[in-house]
Write a structure and sequence with these properties.
Blueprint (H helix, E strand, L loop, with lengths): L1 H12 L3 H9 L2 H8 L5 H15 L5 H6 L4 H4 L7 E2 L23 E2 L7
Antiparallel strand pairs: 1-2
Amino acid sequence: MAVCNASGALQHLTFLDAAKQQVALRGGVPILTACLKVSNPQTYENAAGALWNVGLDVRNNLVLQAAGAPEFLAHPVPNSWLTRGESTRPSAAGDDVGDSSDVRDRVFLTQAPLM
């Protein structure tokens, strides 16, 4: 029960950008990934939601991959949703934004620009 409640609290906290970064930096991602293996469906849902939220900050993708998070949680943001600024436009294929060689310097929708 405590694991379910804790993962639910993290799911709600990770709506905040600062919390996304803190969960990734302070070792929360491996714990949440382990929660995906718990037999309680509510715990799974909470942990998956928290990992999804953490993954919305593309700077956390490597942490999610290293922790063994499923691909759909490690990369929840398609490249076409990422932006570098006003001058960058989607390609004709609609799959990438500008140069797709490194998405880590891009931000998702309303996130603060990377410094």
